[in-house]
Amino acid sequence: MEVIEVKNVLTNVQVLSLERLVTDHNFPWYYAPTTLGMGAKKDKGQFVHELYAEGELEKNYGELILEFFTKLPEFKTHNFNRAKINLTTPYKNSNEYPHTDLEKPNSISYLYYFHDSDGPTFFYPNWWKKIKVHPKRGKLVRFPSNLKHSGNNPTKYERRTVMSIIFES
Hints:
36% strand, eight-stranded antiparallel β-sheet, mainly beta, single chain
């Protein structure tokens, strides 16, 4: 399996609604001093908002935001593992340490980009190949959860906001 952009899951109105929701001054963000914990190089930290973790749906925004993505086929075929939104701010030469979302075979991850930004996501299918995905408003990318990937902080934009949705096989 590979990295694929999933089209036509959301309408333009839904894309704009989601962006407005997470950029509203009332949307709660929580600061995490590292993006991945130990091992990350030049790690600046990030703001996070957990939507679904450890079997718990976040009360205020979890259901509201995830309702937009109920058309994803994995909601019927896989176990919902977690969903989280990350917001990173400008930082020169930062690259998140490559990681996997879940090691279980046949598990699926999605990344959803709330707005245009720089700070691409890199996917590493093998040691000689790197796939670069640029953050674009409304872009939804599907990939195997055990595929190594890393993100970058923006350098020209004020923020990079991405949501991960992870399904366990």
